[in-house]
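Handoff note, outgoing to incoming analyst
You'll be picking up this chain. Sequence as last confirmed:
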Amino acid sequence: MAQRGQKRRAEETEEQRNRRLAVMAQRGQERRAEETDEQR
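Most recent structure output, in case you need it:
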């Protein structure tokens, strides 16, 4: 039982990490778009 709880918790943290990476990638794309606007 305890092991199953730990596994579920690990999966949740992995999902959170993936979500955070996706958000960071999105912010990076937005920042890049702003830079290209300034360069134009």
